[in-house]
Every structure is written in C-alpha cells, then in structure tokens.
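Query structure, 136 tokens:
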C-alpha cells in the first residue's frame, strides 16, 4: 500500500496546460500504459465516467474509471473500481512559462519502485507532449 507524489516543471501557461491535461482524449498522450480513453457521457456519484483501455504488465485491460476536473483550482482527480484502491490527483500551478505539475497517487498495490517509475515516466511524457522536447 502506498501514497506517492512527484512533481515537474513545464514551460507552458498553467491554464493552457491544465486544459490539455484535463481533456480525457489526451490521457493516452501522457499515460504510457493508456491506449484509449473516452468519456461515456455518464455521471456517477458526481464523477464523469470514462471508458479506458490500458496495457498493464503486458495484459490488455478494459474498464470504467472516473475523472473530475476543477478548472478554478486546476486540479484533476481520478480513480477506478477494483481491488487496488487506485486513485490519484494532478495539480497544475506556477506562472506562465514556468508551470508546475504535481501528481499524487494512492494504491493498495505493493510495487513501490514500479509505481514511482511510472509516475516519473508520466511527468516526462507530459513535458515531451507539451514542450515538444525530450527530458533525457
């Protein structure tokens, strides 16, 4: 079980960055395991429902998840049903040209190093997608 947090800076306007990150259709651009993400048009318990397809440890997984975007606070939260107690939040801050992205994740899954590596990769993918440059 664990809680994880990672942060990076992105050369972007925070509002424009949040708009990009909160568009469900862009999730596969920066979540490496995500293959498809489509809003279902449904709301459940106040959350926007999303149909997702991901490849996790070589296995294709399809399911329902939820996502909430708060543009005023520039926060995005998400989660899914299942045994891993999976959920997270993303927050965009900073100033134009020097935005920050903080990702927090909670899971009951015990693979700490793999989860940390996944968060680092997600933040690197955000930088690459938005800035158009590699961070390595």
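Result returned for the query:
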């Amino acid at each position: 079980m664990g809680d994880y947090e990672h942060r990076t800076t992105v050369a972007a306007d925070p509002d424009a960055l949040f708009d990009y990150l909160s568009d469900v259709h862009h999730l596969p651009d920066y979540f490496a395991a995500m293959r498809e993400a489509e809003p279902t048009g449904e709301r459940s318990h106040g959350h926007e429902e999303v149909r997702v397809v991901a490849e996790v440890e070589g296995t294709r997984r399809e399911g329902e998840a939820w996502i909430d975007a708060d543009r005023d606070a520039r926060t995005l939260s998400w989660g899914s049903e299942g045994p891993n107690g999976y959920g997270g939040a993303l927050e965009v801050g900073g100033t134009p040209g020097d935005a920050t992205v903080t990702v927090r994740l909670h899971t009951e899954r015990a693979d700490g190093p793999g989860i940390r590596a996944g968060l680092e990769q997600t933040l690197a993918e955000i930088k690459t997608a938005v800035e158009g440059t590699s961070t390595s």
